[in-house]
Design a protein that fits this description.
The chain has about 625 residues and is α+β, with helices and mostly antiparallel strands. Helices cover about 40% and strands about 20% of the residues. The protein contains 21 helices and 23 strands.
Length: about 625
């Protein structure tokens, strides 16, 4: 679906978070994930006032849930700082330097002093109830075909705990991720097309990877989108993992907001007002005493009740599709999910074991008109009331159009409600860390030693080493470029080095665990090639064996597998034997027998002799016999 994004007034801002590959930010603890738990403890968290004397609504909503948080720790990867029993140490110097590198790579200006702030977070992801964050750079930019996009802030902050188990009354977190340095890059809302957002994210990602000091793998990068259109609202979408999904998610959010505006327009036509949506709960448990719905029967068996609310003039709109496979009713269910697993509404019934007769009886009990709707919840009475209050609130918001909120990205490109949009009332000064002066000497050192942008490196490889662009791109994307240049410096031909690092090793990945092959293995194998101890054809077999037995050396494998080069005399002897066995074919076809003889020769000599030498000797023997 292609929209006229300009007329819709699409505005998108990006927030990119990437873990740095250094020690933890506020103490010298390794920044690694683990599964070993040495101790646990519990905490309850509560919101505090910001420096403006206000309480953040997102924090307040989390506090109302009344959850207990259990933290799992390991003595090697956690210390007193990360269980909030000791003040933070001074920020990691390497992390600060990497943040400065990124600042310059994004055309931004570094600050003169780094001041850490506390950001209130009480969902359990931080033991202390806040996250420490500081601005390192400001006023950067990214140029795109649609125009420049600003980067107002580049921040250095600590990552949060890792969720292990999420429950209604209790959540379990692992402390290993807490404190890993995280770079946060925010753009201005100057992105006006989904593909433009992808270009900006790619540029920022390239700048981060250029430092070679960012972590890789699942969970090390998180991309958030802030999206709005005319008449809609700003929506924060968290957890966008894949670059290619950015345009899809933006398009789906535009679709969602447009459909919510259609619902608003229809509700206005029907004359619905907020005061019409009253908090009146109807006990309809008796109607479902003999129900065929397993969900309802299960709730009744546990002593629960079936409560209903009336939504005047909402019939047909709760089931209105706003994203593929998602309706207004889905959004209501998302809000209620903190209390119950699901809701039932008139637009989807009869279904789920609920009969038409039961629907009719509910309609009669609530005295519903032609356009009136109902929503049902099956649960313990107080829980059911809480869930229906959330549904009622979402219905009231539908009258106004698009509510501001934070949503989670789903794998298909749709999104799901998480919590209200955080406000500015969640920041206050950090009192345990003094301001950090960024000297001109440090800035100059960083600026004069900036790494090369990935795309610039790709272009250089194509031009200087005459290798295919796709090979060059893969070398850079897989971060094999430094090893590639080391092999060239050793004397290896660029085309061979690139082919082995990209084609051969990627091909072996389907057969053996290539992650076991170290850079030392690779350099040692190429050293054997330079010393004429092996043929290039032997490299693949050597790497395959090293993947299975990484404790061995390249030389050991070559010797054990009989892959060391034979002398020219030994090679010539084997070729003479092959030619003798096929003398009749050689006399009949002459040079036409070349392909057949090469095939048989390489079957015996692959990895034991250079292919070029074999070709020369086979050709020589044929010429001797046919001249």
């Amino acid at each position: 679906m292609e929209f006229d994004y300009k007329s819709l007034g699409l505005k998108v801002g990006l927030e990119i978070h990437r873990q740095l590959d250094t020690k933890k930010l506020f103490s010298a603890v390794p920044s690694q994930l683990h599964d070993n738990v040495d101790f646990t403890f519990e905490r309850r968290l509560r919101p505090t006032m910001s420096e403006l004397g206000e309480i953040d609504q997102a924090a307040l909503e989390e506090f109302k849930r009344g959850r207990v948080f259990v933290y799992e720790g390991n003595y090697k990867y956690t210390d007193l700082v990360y269980i909030d029993e000791e003040p933070p140490h001074m920020p990691d110097e390497d992390a600060l330097k990497v943040a400065l590198q990124i600042t310059y790579l994004l055309n931004a200006i570094p600050v003169d002093e780094v001041h850490f702030m506390r950001k209130i977070v009480i969902d359990g992801s931080n033991v202390s109830g806040f996250q420490r964050t500081a601005i390192v750079g400001m006023n950067g930019k990214v140029d795109t075909p649609w125009g420049s996009v600003g980067i107002p802030t580049i921040c250095l902050e600590e990552d949060a705990c890792r969720i292990v188990e999420q429950g209604e009354k209790k959540a379990i977190y692992r402390l290993d991720r807490l404190g890993i340095p995280l770079i946060e890059i925010a753009t201005t809302p100057d992105i006006h097309h989904p593909e433009q957002a992808k270009i900006v994210a790619k540029f920022i990602g390239d700048a981060l990877r250029a430092t070679r000091k960012v972590k890789r793998g699942l969970g090390t990068i998180r991309q958030d989108l802030n999206i709005s259109i005319k008449g809609g609202a700003r929506i924060e979408i968290k957890g966008v993992q894949e670059l290619d999904m950015i345009p899809v998610i933006i398009e789906r959010e535009v679709q969602r907001q447009l459909n919510l505006l259609k619902i608003k327009e229809e509700l206005q036509k029907r004359g619905v007002k907020e005061e019409d949506l009253k908090e009146e709960f109807y006990d309809v448990t008796d109607i479902f005493s003999g129900t065929g719905s397993k969900i309802i029967a299960r709730a009744l068996k546990k002593g629960g009740k079936i409560l209903a609310i009336k939504l005047p003039k909402f019939r047909g709109l709760i089931g209105f599709e706003i994203q593929p496979g998602r309706r207004l009713g889905t959004e209501m269910a998302d809000r209620a999910r903190k209390y119950v697993k699901g809701i039932f509404h008139i637009d989807e019934l009869p279904n789920y074991g609920i009969s038409q007769e039961e629907v009719d009886r509910v309609v009669e009990r609530l005295n519903l008109g032609e356009f009136d709707a109902f929503v049902l919840v099956a649960a313990e009475e107080e829980i059911a009331k809480k869930a229906l209050r959330e549904v009622l609130q979402r219905a009231r918001e539908a009258i106004s159009g698009v509510p501001e909120e934070t949503r989670r990205a789903l794998p298909d490109g749709n999104t799901q409600y998480m919590r209200p949009l955080p406000g500015k009332a969640r920041m206050y000064p950090e009192t345990d860390i003094p301001p950090i002066f960024m000297s001109e000497e440090l800035k100059k050192e960083i600026l004069e030693n900036l790494p090369e942008y990935p795309q610039a490196k790709v272009g250089r490889y194509v031009k200087a080493y005459k290798i295919d662009k796709s090979l060059a791109q893969t070398l850079v994307d897989d971060e094999r470029d430094e090893l590639f240049e080391e092999l060239i410096a050793m004397g290896i031909k660029p085309s061979l080095a690139a082919s082995i690092l990209v084609v051969v090793l990627k091909g072996l990945k389907k057969e053996v665990p290539t992650d076991n092959i170290t850079e030392t293995h690779i350099k040692d194998a190429f050293k054997l090639l330079l010393e004429d101890k092996i043929a290039k054809e032997a490299l693949e077999e050597i790497f395959k064996e090293l993947a299975l037995h990484p404790e061995r050396t390249a030389l050991q494998v070559a010797e054990e597998k009989g892959l060391t080069l034979l002398s020219e005399e030994e090679v010539e002897k084997i070729i003479e034997e092959i030619v003798r066995e096929n003398i009749d074919v050689v006399k009949a076809k002459g040079m036409g027998a070349m392909g057949m003889l090469m095939g048989r020769a390489m079957a015996k000599l692959r990895g034991k002799a250079d292919g070029k030498l074999v070709n020369q000797l086979v050709r020589k023997k044929i010429q001797e016999l046919t001249s």
